[in-house]
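Example record

One chain of 191 residues, shown exactly as stored in the release files.
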Amino acid sequence: MREIRIFEHISLDGVIDHDQDYAYGAWTAPYRSPAGLEAVIESQGTGFDLLLGRRTYDIWADYWPKAGNSPMADSLNLATKYVATHRPDSLKWGPVGDLGTDVIEGIRGLKSTDGPDLILWGSSTLTSVLLGEGLVDEVVLFVYPILLGRGKRFFSDSVDARELALVSTKTTPTGVLMNTYRYVRSLRTVI
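Predicted structure tokens for this chain:
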């Protein structure tokens, strides 16, 4: 059985927007470092598959195949990408597969098979759904020392309370905390 791990860049106040369309765009860039990249690569491991929403897939498909050889680019390009999409015929960056018309059942099916862990990067809509369905085994948050005030949040109001246990934490030279948490239980029955 595969595990599902979510990786997310997040501000201290929970904002995850960091693309060019966001008011503060690319706010993660000043905090990038070789040590941070090394921590990401180590945390991902050597073999994994990706779960991606269609928007994240399209953004990454425009970038990573052209990024040249590097440990990060190579690992993402080699991973099988499982995409939540209504247009599976237009998926070109492979190896690739769609999750079917019932995304949750598609993910449950993948999770129940043997194979590498499934990593979800970005894809905030898919993140909320997976957390809500209790399908997430581990959450890796890259917490940046910045307050953004407004923007898309990582934790949706629709997700029931969950208890997570801190597994590890690392700090990069630029002050980014890489916190890894394991799912413990739903707090719905406790509270």
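Notes: The radius of gyration is 16 Å.
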